[in-house]
Write a structure and sequence with these properties.
The chain has 188 residues and is α/β, with parallel strands linked by helices. 43% of the residues lie in helices and 20% in strands. A five-stranded parallel beta sheet has the order 5-4-3-6-7, sandwiched between helices. Helix 1 (32-43) links the parallel strand 3 (23-27) and strand 4. Helix 3 packs parallel to helix 4 (118-140). The protein is globular. This is Alcohol dehydrogenase. It holds the Pfam family adh_short.
């Protein structure tokens, strides 16, 4: 494994996949795990990346920081609330198609921990992740002109072990684990 590849697990075992020349969409990509993933993907040779997040645009310092990771890469940003299906449809079916052409990798890292708004927490952490995954997989489908691809769903230890101070958050992350595991054995 080199700095330009990632380790991928599949039914046939683990193997290295090159990031060189790939395209990627990262939800929640303007901060935290999503931003760090964007940096690493760019360092690994991703040629085009679309960051989806709630702000109007990336800050100038963020854009500069990402550009320094891979000066030859194209970096795009689209405002997208993953809890809003029409936002997801626009971000993927219009913006990603226009700017990336095809999607090779989707990283779902958008997430919130807000116990005072259970419906919002479920909408972002679980429903939004599901909508983004299904929309991206439709675009990745070889039957519809895509090249296939990979989906990475970010969960949490709270998706494996109970978290009594964040029960709604924990429930959403258990849902992410269940959805991801189920998709991994489905006929998609």
């Amino acid at each position: 494994i080199s700095a330009r590849s990632v380790l991928v697990w599949s039914s046939s075992g683990a193997h290295a996949m090159s990031l060189e020349g790939k395209t990627a969409v990262i939800t929640g990509g303007a901060s935290g795990i999503g931003f760090a993933t964007a940096e690493e993907f760019l360092k690994g040779g991703v040629s085009k990346i679309l960051i989806l997040d709630l702000g109007e645009h990336l800050r100038a310092d963020q854009e500069s920081q990402l550009k320094s990771c891979n000066p030859g890469a194209s970096i795009y940003y689209s405002k997208c609330d993953v809890s809003n299906k029409s936002n997801v449809e626009k971000a993927f079916r219009q913006d990603a198609v226009k700017w990336l052409g095809t999607i090779d990798i989707l990283v779902n890292s958008a997430g919130i921990l807000n116990e005072s708004d259970p419906a919002g927490c479920v909408a972002v952490n679980l429903t939004g992740l599901i909508e983004c995954t299904l929309t991206a997989m439709d675009l990745m489908s070889k039957d519809k002109g895509g090249k296939g691809g990979f989906v990475v769903n970010i969960s949490s230890i709270a998706g494996l072990e109970p978290m009594p101070f964040g029960v709604t958050y924990s429930a959403t992350k258990f849902g992410v684990v269940g959805f991801t595991r189920s998709m991994g054995v489905s006929l998609w």
